[in-house]
Design a protein that fits this description.
Elements: E1 9-13, E2 34-35, E3 38-39, H1 40-50, E4 55-60, H2 65-70, H3 75-81, H4 91-99, E5 101-106, H5 113-119, H6 121-124, E6 129-132, E7 136-139, H7 154-165, E8 168-174, E9 184-192, E10 195-203, E11 214-222, H8 226-232, H9 243-253, E12 256-260, E13 264-267, H10 271-290
The chain binds 1-O-phosphono-alpha-D-glucopyranose.
Length: 291
Amino acid sequence: MTQTQTIRKCLFPVAGYGTRFLPATKSMPKEMLPVVNKPLIQYAVEEAMEAGINKMGFITGRGKRAIADYFDNNYELEHEIAGSSKEQNLSDINAVMDNGQFIFMRQREMLGLGHAILTGEPIIGDEPFAVILADDLCVAPLNQHKQKTDTLRAMSQLIDLYNQYQCCIVAIEEVPKEDTASYGIICGDEIAPGIYDVDDMVEKPKPADAPTNMAIIGRYVLTPQIFDYLRETKPGTNGEIQITDALKQVAKEERVIAVKFAGERFDCGSVEGFVQATNYFFEHEFKKSVN
Ligand code: G1P
């Protein structure tokens, strides 16, 4: 690649079952669970838009139609509330719909995150792209007075680094050593504060086998070569095709950069993280918006 290509597209793998939230997720996608009054998937799409992306590709599965409906008009409802104060509750999602394009593909079999990303190849084609896992809800850093700063959310930070290094970029954060089996773990050389040149990665190692406690969180910028690597990747942890295994190969043959992003991340795939996110957004967004 000789010239930096703009990141225009983001993939959202959203086919998973969300079993940790049963029974709530029995008949609705986990990505539609609301943190205060907004579904997880909307936070993820807004983070991509903030980073300058407007083509959103969803890798969906059976039982996920509510996501497609969410990014579409609902004439009956809009007619019903037209002219009332309730209309403003739709302003954020309307802005998202007006400024984005939404593309949906079904992953027929759930063979892992790597497989989900490979399923999205027809949406992406031959250009670098972003991946956001909506379960990981990221917020921008606040200053010491708990106010917003100019720093944008994680995806914008990853894209800045992509523009600088023009290689695959992953977001990381330090996790307690006993939690390594829930994450992809990286190790590498720190080439600038919080920025690592990755030399190895391992998916969900037991604490005793983890090379570090630096965990990948659900934000990636990938070059289109990743699809070739994924085609060669054999099933790994849990018998699934893992993006971590494909990236490990990229790190060996090309380059992968990992960054400790600024801001906070809530693990909304767990009940505890979900409750923390709810408290955060109630305090920092919702209360302010109604006052
Ligand atoms: C996936 C990835 C893992 C990463 C995690 C971040 O795992 O496979 O490498 O650390 O997302 O949330 P999952 O949580 O889907 O099991």
